[in-house]
Amino acid sequence: MKTFTLVLLPLFLVCLFPINRPDLFQQELTVATPEASKIVTGADQVSAYLPYLKGKRIGMVVNQTSIIGNKPSVDSLVSLGINIVAVFGPEHGFRGNASNGAKVDDAVDEKTGIPIISLYGKNKKPTKEQLANIDLMVFDIQDVGCRFYTYINTLNHVMEACAEHGKELMILDRPNPNGFIIDGPILEKHLYSGIGMHPIPITHGCTIAEFAQMINGEGWGGLPGKDLCKLKIIRVANYTHDTPYTLPILPSPNLNTQQSIMLYPSTCWFEGTIISQGRGTYMPFTVLGAPALKGIYPFSFKPVSIKGMSETPLHQNEDCFGLDLRKYDTNIFRKTRQLNLQWLMELYKAYPDKARFFDTSYSKQIGNFNFRSGNEALQKQIIAGVSEKEIRKSWEPGLSAYKQMRKKYLLYP
């Protein structure tokens, strides 16, 4: 039997308030580390929070990315004597093996015997009854910094429930691999949905803890006025928003490479079009194409049903022709600080039946293009052949206003 060993880091508890706003009810715990250049996630700084968990009944919002060292955090904390009474699982489930958009049912974890409560099934946020036996909630999920990636919605729902029922929320923070880019149109309120519920651009440039502070500070979701969520944050050590970060655990079935994670903000909005993003292959979000582009592009791929990834993909069992981005140099995003609009403009121009390009009524796509882009203007601009420069100009002043507002909630340079 393998034994579980933890190397505890030196403990220096420092209470900080990055924002001069006591109404955020935040106490922050940080840890100094001996290796000044090494990123250390909040979860890996065990000595910073283990004493705070002792003697409490803990609920954990986690998935397969929630690790301490190379072990699942739930398993690790149970082995250290922490009383975890419930696990709350987001989209893709606790162990990360459910397909995108698939309903996830409640269950019992076979390994630990802990009840698993789905937050992507019959209810999106914990109920009063589900929180009754919990003293402290812990949120530890790897995000990728994109508006339509649903974990920030899960965070908001958990914060609402904690605020409503008087529960404190500890966030074990993790780096944002796309934290250096803040770009895209601001989501308009009439387009709020399950793939976007905050007035933010496509890439928001925050870690989960920073975004939690923003939810509190801006009164989003069900957190107006006095009903703020009490936060306790374990910061990432030695991290900046410009620090390159390769995820040690892939965050969801269709973000299965670092390349897909970096391309995702610029390729996911194709889900609101007739163009396949590679779901139904083992290279999702790194290829783009459709059967009608045959003869225009030489590269091809064929989506098929893959259990746990994409079971009914767009253009299933059809040859799709288009762009192969698997070797695209994603460092260009770090240089430009912008999403790639050219692929969207190029494929629309190349598509023979333009009336069908944004029509998803024939497929099982999740929402239409406007829900992805966040406004109704971008689709019309692409159809009208508006230049990229003019499109980007139309995102103002909203984008600049967001960037300014974001500064109030930053924990890292």
Report what the structure shows.
The protein starts with 25 loop residues before the first strand and ends in a 7-residue tail after the last helix. The chain folds into two domains: 22-248 and 404-409, Uncharacterised protein PF07075, DUF1343 (Rossmann fold); 258-375, no CATH class. The protein has 413 residues and is α/β, with parallel strands linked by helices. The longest helix is centred in the middle third of the chain and has 15 residues, at 151-165. It contains 13 helices and 13 strands. Helices cover 25% and strands 13% of the residues. This is DUF1343 domain-containing protein. It holds the Pfam family NamZ_N. One of its GO terms (molecular function) is peptidoglycan beta-N-acetylmuramidase activity. Residues 262-412 form the Peptidoglycan beta-N-acetylmuramidase NamZ C-terminal domain.
What kind of sheet is the major sheet?
Answer: 8 strands, mixed
From the alpha-carbon coordinates, what is the Rg to the nearest angstrom? 21 Å
User: Please, what is the average pLDDT?
Assistant: 87
Strand order of the biggest β-sheet: 1-10-9-8-2-5-7-6
CATH architecture term of the largest domain: 3-Layer(aba) Sandwich
Please indicate the count of domains. 2
The DSSP helix count reads 13
Q: How much strand?
A: 5-15%
InterPro entries: NamZ, NamZ_C, NamZ_N
Domain Peptidoglycan beta-N-acetylmuramidase NamZ N-terminal: 58-258
Domain Peptidoglycan beta-N-acetylmuramidase NamZ C-terminal: 262-412
GO molecular function, one term: peptidoglycan beta-N-acetylmuramidase activity
